[in-house]
Amino acid sequence: MVRIHVVRAVHLLYCAVAVILLAVLLFVAFGAREEKKSTNENEITYTVWEAEAVNVSASAIFAPVEDDGIQVEIVNHEKEKPKILIYHTHTHEAYQKREEDEYVETSAWRTKNNRYNIVRVGEELTRLLTEKGYFVIHDTTDHELNDLATAYSRSLETMNAYKSEIDVYIDLHRDAYYKDTSGNPFSLKTDEGDFARLMFLVGNGEGFSDKMYYTENYSLATMLTGEINAQVPGLCRPVMVKDGRYNQHLSDKSMLIEVGHNQNTIDEALSAMPYLAEALDRVLTDP
C-alpha cells in the first residue's frame, strides 16, 4: 500500500511540473503575442503617420499664406505663350477683284467689306494662332475712316487701349498697289500652291525723337523672315526699313506685316497664313 502512495506522489510531482511548464509556455506565448501586437501597432502607427504626413503636405499646399507663415510657390516650367493683338491701320486694303467677288470698292483695290479686305486675312491668322494655344485679340476697328493720313494716330489709340494685356502687336497690311501688269513679283507659285508673298516693314524712327525698339523689332522681323523662308523658300521678301516708326515705338515686339499685293487674290493671301502662324509660334516661344 505504501508503494502505491509513493507512485501516486511521483505522478503528482510530474503533473505539478507539467502545469508549471505549461504556465511558463503560456506566459512566453502571451508575451510574444503581446510583443507582436505591439510591433503591429507600431507598424499601424507608422502607416497612419505617413498618411498624416501626406495630409499635412496637402494642407500646406492649399493653406493661405498667413497660416503658420508657410508659403508655397507652384512653378509652371512650361513657358507661357505671349498674348497677341492683330489689328489693321489700313483696314480697307483689298485684293484683286474676281468675278465672284461681289463687293463695293471704296476706291481702287479697297473695300469696307471685311470678307474681301485685309481684315479677312487677319481673321484667318487669328484662327491659326488660337489653335496653337495663343490668346489673340483681333481688333477690326476701321482706322482709315477714308483719311489715310491720320490712320496711324487712330491705330496707336487702339494699341494703347490693349497695352496692359498684350505682349505682341501685329499690324497686318496688304502692300501698296502695283501698276505693272507684266508680272507679279508678289506671287509665289509652288507645287504646294500659289501664295501671296510676305514682307516685314520696320520703321527706323527717323523724324521722331522717340526711336525706341528699332533694333529689337528689326531683329524680330529678321528672325521671322528666316523662319518663313525655311518652310517655303522665297515666300517672305527681305525686311524693308523705312523712315518713320509705324507705331513700333510702343513695344519691342511690334511688327508690320505686308501680305501680298493688289494683284494677288485673297485666296493667295489666305494660303500664306499657315506659314506665318508657324513662324510666329517658333520665334515667340523660343526660350
Number of helices: 6
Quickly give the structural class.
alpha/beta
What characterizes the major β-sheet? 6 strands, mixed
Main-sheet strand order equals 4-1-5-10-8-9
User: For the residues shown, what is the average pLDDT?
Assistant: 79
Number of strands: 10
Helix content: 40-55%
Characterization of this structure:
The chain is of the alpha/beta class and 287 residues long. The protein is built from 6 helices and 10 strands. The chain has helices at 2-62, 118-131, 151-161, 214-231, 266-271, 273-284, and strands at residues 84-87, 105-107, 110-111, 136-138, 168-173, 187-190, 193-196, 198-203, 240-242, 254-259. The strands form 3 sheets. The protein has a 6-stranded mixed sheet, sandwiched between helices. A two-stranded antiparallel ribbon has the order 2-3. Strands 6-7 form a two-stranded antiparallel sheet. A hairpin with a 2-residue loop joins β6 and β7. α2 crosses α6 (273-284). It is elongated. Residues 1-7 and 32-77 have low confidence and may be disordered.
